[in-house]
Amino acid sequence: MRYSICFFIIISAFLPQLYTAGAQEAAGSTSRDPFFSDITAPVNSGLDFLEEKTNLRLGADYQALGMGGISGSSDHVYGASGYYGLSARWTVQDSGTGNSSIFDMRFEGRHDFGNEYTPTSMASALGYAGVPGVTFSDGFISKFYIRQNMFGNRLTLTAGHIDLFDHIDVIGVLAPRMAFFNGSSVLNFSMSTPGAGFATTGRMFVTDQFYLFGALGDANGDSRKVDWFSGGAEFFRYGELGWTPSQQDFLKTKLHVGFWNVDERQDAGIAGGYGFLASGNITIDDVWMPYFRAGWSDGGSSLYKWSVTTGFTYAPGGHGDLTGVAASLTRPRNIEEIQFMMESFYRFQVADNLSLTADLQWLVNPAANKVDNHAVVYGMGIRYTL
Prior knowledge:
- The longest helix is centred in the N-terminal third of the chain and has 14 residues, at 41-54.
- The chain is globular, with a radius of gyration of 21 Å.
- It has helices at 2-12, 15-22, 35-39, 41-54, 123-126, 183-186, and strands at 56-71, 77-93, 100-112, 139-150, 155-162, 197-205, 210-218, 235-243, 254-262, 273-281, 288-299, 304-314, 322-332, 339-351, 354-364, 374-385.
- It is mostly beta strands.
- The two termini are 27 Å apart.
């Protein structure tokens, strides 16, 4: 396993040059090679037909990530994990008002490959207070909810079993697994955000450019369980005020500030807490996206007391490739140390439904490592979708 990871990391640096030499581009497609898309073409045609007739969209995907890490005085650490995902989305459109109701479901089975660590847990072996490969763990995850769009999408309400990380402090293309892998690059770990649980959210555009967003959820949410407020009436609350040039540019360019607080979790023995955040991104020429994210907290169960992250993504060419660089400063909640992390990645789109992502991370002053002042993490991910 370890030699495979090293091989893929080295080869990934030359993927664009090596692949272009032999690939044939399909007419009218941005895919480098239609072979992988053609394999599932009959299935995709059937799914398209089903959506056209019923407004029900079914999907499936598989992704795996292998990572290696080393610090000055330790042996190499290896972690690998994968998941299979099944999704369904049913859209009901009101032709008279333009309002819509969307029922979303997603189920994931996450697994390791027999290594001692996963990309999520390998941080402990490096003394790093963070997550090198966010969401790459093991277990079964489920999300299901309904989203109601009203008044020309000026008002959106969501309720169900929700992972609040999917809805809170959202900016640009920074979805976990689709770009950076390190949690500090794509998520705000200065918040005490619970795992997936029953919650509701709402967003309202008060003008064409300014919006309000709020969320209320189970403070004891656990992504691996479907429990109805197992700890009783203990809540996580979030409020956000934001600006975007238009509703259509909501993910491309926006600025927002937010406030959150969480109740004491008595059964878990975790104190309540609160915090503030500010984030923003701007898209330039549809290819560049610089962004920043900052947060501060007091109490609760957040990983960080405060964190600051900045970086950019760049989409080269017309094949769907994406690359980026990010850097973060973080102060863990219970450790009087400041960590620095820098990450770079290149996502090589082999075909419309197949991608390879090479990733490199440099960790400076890992907070729980009293021997080494730096560590390096490298990884390779693969993703296949229907």
